[in-house]
Amino acid sequence: MTQEPVGMQVSEQRHWDRLMQMARLGAIPGDGVNRAALTDLDHQARRLLLSWALPLGLAPSVDALGNLFLRHEGTDPSLPAILTGSHMDSQPKGGRFDGIWGVLAALEAVQAIREAGLTTKRSIEIVAWTNEEGGRFAPGCMGSMAFSGFRPPETWDEVQDRDGMRFGEELARLLAAEADIPRRPLGFTPFAYVEPHIEQGPLLEAEGLDIGVVTGIQGSRWFVVEIAGKTDHAGTAPLSLRQDAVQDMVRAIAALNALTADPEDVLRFTVGRVEVFPNSSNTVADLARFSIDLRHPDAAVLTARGDAVAATVEAAMTKCRATVTETFHALPARFDPMVQDAIEAASRELGLKPKRMPSGAFHDAQFLVPLCPTGMIFIPSRGGISHHPAEYSSPAQVAQGAAVLARVLRRLADS
Ligand code: HGY
Ligand code: MN
Ligand code: MN
Ligand code: MN
User: ipTM higher than 0.90?
Assistant: First the structure.
């Protein structure tokens, strides 16, 4: 138990049990999770969350993007609420904590406040954002981007997953399955937003510290590159006459590696998804499609490198035609000092060791920054591992993070 002088009791056992029960939805070998957005597993995870939240008296609601809210009513419901939470969807070969810990920590923190018989002036809304990962439907952060007005909700209706399912149809299926949950308009302005999330990096563990007081998030840009050639017979077509989409893709990626070479090793460049059609060993490919994930903390560098992607790919083409589409652009974000100070103070009050640090991963919080004072609480990730089945934070660490959040929520909700 994390002792709370003010009467709030975060229950380590209850919180851990819920995390492990949720991890069974989409469990994969090695203690991992594969729970993509808008799948039946996602539906089941939302129902499991509701089964814990509704008996507490939290009021559920869902908006047009499927963002799910659970409201703890304050003594003055007219005041802008405190928003807290994260996402429930995972990477295809993800872990048991990325995203979902933030949602369950918010539930645990609000439950600790209510069980202590404490009221708060402002209401507190727990949120589970739709499709943060972008693993099934790219890009990520669709729910928080639509909520914050960054993109209109219909932007992604036609986005398809690898089975040809459309985002708009899958979203409609989810909303139909949750017809029993009251609807709410898309978007509102919170008083503040606090997102608990695992660090997904090695710093806290390496320095023996407990809580990350996140100062900001680096910028991210996603692109999809399509290279169109011509199918040909692998045994008869002369190499000199081929329009081989795979060969030109290889040239394009080599050229992008040169564009993104960075002696300081700050820039991040990832080709995580490659698709080849018709994907037959004895047919020259006429279509190659690959993803680009580019990240840097400096907006100018991210702009310069990202804006050069299309020209770099074009210049690498020998016989094929390339199209480059940008699907995601999140600017570097800086978190509000007031929220950072509240997280640091709560950590120290609990005898924990905090560290101010940036986030290499993007988060829904990035899109709340223009809307309201925003901050994030990190807990350590064992070995810095994430987006991997071995992702792990201990029962004590998840409970400590929830205890810090409970104090931060109370402080903000009474301000
Ligand atoms: O990709 C990211 O940075 C986040 O973890 N989804
Ligand atoms: Mn995440
Ligand atoms: Mn993630
Ligand atoms: Mn995130």
Answer: yes
